[in-house]
Amino acid sequence: MSIGRDLVNGNWWLFLEENHIQIGFWPQGIFTDLTSFATNVEWGGVVYSPPGVPEPPMGSSFFPIEETSYDSYCRGLTVLDDKGETIDVDETTTLVDNPNLYKVIDLPHAIPGKFQHFVLYGGPGENA
Question: Does pTM top 0.90 for this prediction?
C-alpha cells in the first residue's frame, strides 16, 4: 500500500500493490492541515466494543509470532513523497492501547531496497 497526494488538486489517495490500484480517496478539503504535505503517516487497525462489553479479538485472535501462516498482517506498506517516489520511513512508533490484549509488530525494510513495512497484528481481546 502507498499513500500519495495529487499535486494538481491536493486530494489524497491510497493505492494498493505495485500497479497502484486506487482503493481510497480523501478530498483535500477535509484535511485543513494538509494543504501542501504531510509530516506524519499512520496505519493500523481498530477494534471496538460498547462500554461494559468485553474487548473483541483482533486479527486471527492470537498474538503475532512473526509467522504469516498464523498472523494477521499488512505488507508492502510504503509512503510516497511529493514526486510520487517511495521514501524511507525508518522511524516508526507502535501504539497499542492495551498490550495485555493486543500486539503489533512493525518490520521496516522487510524487503531490502524497497523501503516497505510489514506489519503483524492480533490479540485475543478479553476473550482469552
Answer: no
